[in-house]
Amino acid sequence: MRTVIQILLFIVAVVLAYMIYQSIQRPIDFQKAQKARYDVTIEKLKDIRKAQLAFKDVYGRYTGSWDTLIDFVKYDSVRNVRKIGELTDSMIEEGISEKKAIQMGLLIRDTIKESVLESLFGKGYNADQLKYVPIPDTQAEFHLGATVITTGSGIKVPVFEAKAHNNIILNDLDRQLVINMNDQSRTNEKYPGLKVGSLTEAINNAGNWE
After folding, report:
1. Cα 20–24–30 angle (5° rounding)?
2. Cα–chain center distance at 148
3. Residue 111 to residues 11, 91, 99, 172, Cα–Cα distance (Å)
4. Residue 53: is its pLDDT beyond 70?
5. Who has greater pLDDT, 105 or 187?
6. Predicted pLDDT at 45
7. How much is the pTM?
8. Would the pLDDT of 114 be above 80?
9. 190: exposed, middle or buried (C-beta count within 10 Å: 0-12, 13-18, 19+)?
């Protein structure tokens, strides 16, 4: 009888030890996976921001269309100024401005057209993947929007927003911990996920991770 009791006590001790280990390890494993997924998602959102800023430089607005933004990156061009030479101290002492130095042939300033794709990302970049949240086993797209808002002083400001919810970014991770994370974000009046820009306020295209 004593042996049976000892075996049962041993099993209970093992189960309790495993439960304690799991209660400690579970959030640690979740945080590691969450950070890895957040890191790659943030990098993609930075790429989206880069593309949107270039689009605005060319067209004076942002776009809420993935087809438009991706076509812009793949096929459009941007103007860049090629600079050769800089004003030296001796030129400045002689009263030579940059404009005059260009006229004299001492400096070169050429405006050239460059491919958006190569200029922003490099030739091998896959622009077609720009709209997808970079999470394994999913084809979920970032939500993309653009509009024009009017500030309190009456100034019209073009804005854009790209975002992905935690339920997408953290898909297939510990469901309860994801729910807890979302609840905490809502309690703090923050978006439960990652986003760059805003459709309701001018925040200089900042990301909510910054």
Report:
1. 135
2. 21
3. 77, 23, 15, 49
4. yes
5. 187
6. 98
7. 0.77
8. yes
9. exposed
From residue 191, alpha-carbon distances to 2, 133, 159, 160 in Å are 58, 16, 17, 16
Query: What are the Cα distances from residue 128, in Å, to 28, 60, 145, 160?
Result: 34, 23, 18, 19
Tokens 């002689």 — which residue? 94
Distance separating alpha carbons of residues 46 and 195, to the nearest angstrom: 10
Give dist(CA 35, CA 192) in Å, integer. Answer: 15
d(CA 176, CA 204): 34
Which residues are CB-contacts of 151 (< 8 A; sequence separation ≥ 6)?
157, 202
For residue 6, what pLDDT is reported?
Answer: 61
Written as six digits, the tokens of 146 are 């653009």
Which tokens sit at 144? 């993309």
Sign of CA dihedral 89, 102, 115, 129: positive
One-letter amino acid at 137 equals D
Q: Please tell me the distance from the alpha carbon of residue 68 to that of residue 182, in angstroms, as a whole number.
A: 32
Tokens encoding 166: 């935690």
Return the SS3 of 47: helix
